[in-house]
From TrEMBL:
Source lineage: Bacteria, Bacillati, Bacillota, Bacilli, Bacillales
Top-level taxon in the UniProt lineage: Bacteria
Organism for this UniProt entry: Virgibacillus indicus
Domain spans labelled SCP: 239-349
Residue ranges of the TM segments: none
PANTHER family linked to this entry: SCP DOMAIN-CONTAINING PROTEIN, SCP-LIKE EXTRACELLULAR PROTEIN
Occurrences of domain CAP-associated (ranges): 68-208
InterPro entries linked to this entry: CAP_assoc (IPR029410), CAP_dom (IPR014044), CAP_sf (IPR035940)
Protein's UniProt name: CAP domain-containing protein
Amino acid sequence: MRFLRFILIVSLIAIAGFYFMEKNDLTTEEAIENISPIVKEKKSLIESKTAPEKQPGIPLEGDLFQWIGKDSDELVQTLGEPIRKDVSAYDYTWWVYTDQENQYIQFGVLDGDIETVYAAGSGLEIAPASIGQAYDEMKEQFSFSKEVTYNNGFSSYTFRLNEDELKMRPLVKMSDDIFLQCYFDTFTEKLSSIRVLTSDILLKHRPYEIEYRGNLPDEPLLSDEDWAEVENGMEKQIFDLTNVLRSHYGKSELAWEENVSEVAFLHSKDMAENNYFSHYSKDGNGLKERLAVEDIFYLAAGENIAAQYPDAAAAMEGWLNSEGHREALLNDDYTHLGAGVYRFYYTQNFLSRP
């Protein structure tokens, strides 16, 4: 049996701290610190989670930007009811549409209006970009830059991207108040997913280093009950996005494993509460020992961890763009997955079963 190989990757990002990722096989985001007027990027209760039934393809056509500011009633009229509504840590609620195989879209709805959209998968009409589009082609189309500036009255904000961010998730200002984040698979240099968001949402997420004059939104301040809802939603998002990504790369679908999800959740919680980031707990126990406590049978197992990404979608893109994490995410041998999220700590546990 393979045992305990890990890769630790730490990448400095914008507003308020660090993103951390670590991957472990058996067979990373924000330490928040305010440096005014410069901020460096980010950086429970567990409910029963079951994979929803498969849904038909998403009948979405046209420009994603057209949805920003529109009423959620129009969304229902066009796409029908979402398969679920996941509370976010940033006031809005994700309305999730996915066929659990090829297509995934979530709309961030705040006070009845759409404030952000995230889309991944194949066969989606999401002009002006398309999943799988080459980086160089999009760079020429949008003129990616290391600095993107936004002004609001007497307040001004400059988002600064380093070389890695410019390659993996460049930011484009589409209008006075609307931005585009392009997430690229740096291994294939093709577009992996896309996010459209208003300036308010971008400032709440704080995904890049930012120099500003004025005020920044407060960090999320939620009750334990609120966090439990947010965490549960992000776990489901990680499961859905994992299978959509695996399908995109020609890999088999993973089944949800509830006991493994609980193991993953408890590890995320332990890291957050005891202020460490590792596959090994403070007592020295690793994934093998954590699975043994629950008497979980497997032929092979692997683990990805990340911390301080603003949400599940961002953490997934981080894993996809790290060689070790990508290896686990797209491993041909794995058959089951459990995901556990506590605050902004994320854990994926993979299993191989006959």
